[in-house]
Amino acid sequence: MAVCAGHLPIHVGAVLPQQEGQFCITANTVESSVADLTTERPYLCYPLGTQAETPEALITFKAAVAVPTQAAGPDRLRGQIIIDFFGLNAREQLHRDRARMMTVFSPALLAQQQGQASALDLDLIARVDSPNLPHANCLRAFKGLWASDATMASQVFEQCGYIC
Question: Which residues pair with 115 in a beta bridge?
Fold first, then answer.
């Protein structure tokens, strides 16, 4: 039984993509108390406050593409559901905006890697850790790529220039 958003009694089951932009919950309808629901694990995270993990625990980025942080298991499914539900890879403008942000930060990261970073470069790099930065998770993943594989990060930077 699949019941799509809009007419949802309490359900037990998995959220599955039905059509682009639509998600349904599959399972039989059951009567449940709030106490019964405390053992359920949500598919979407609640990124405000300290009640749940941050989205970065479930989603990271390879260049401008959102990917689950886990290779397998329930957290991989949660990450993929969030990516699909919010269309994180389905909107071209998001890819362009992420690429634009990477091109802003890349020269500073390159200068730091080469030991030539100015105070302005270091200040810009420090802003990657700001929670108010647009596309912060993407930029933090990109900063990590510079630290682990500067050659690949340089190639990503070059490609981002073409996307913008």
Answer: none
The arithmetic mean of pLDDT across residues 49-63, rounded, is 84
> Is 0.90 surpassed by the pTM of this model?
no
Nearest Cα to Cα of residue 29 among 13, 6, 41? 13
So where are the chain's domains? Answer: 1-30, 54-164
Per the document, the length of the chain is 164
Residue 16, pLDDT > 80, answer no
Mean pLDDT estimate for the chain: 81
Q: Which two structure tokens, joined as six digits, stand for 12?
A: 């037990």
Beta strand extents in 28-161 (DSSP E only): 59-62, 65-68
Return the bridge partners of 16, or none.
Answer: 24
Chain position carrying tokens 């470069």 = 121
Please state whether 13 falls in left (phi above 0), alpha (psi between -120 and 50) or beta: left
Q: Note whether 100 and 94 are within 8 A (CB).
A: no
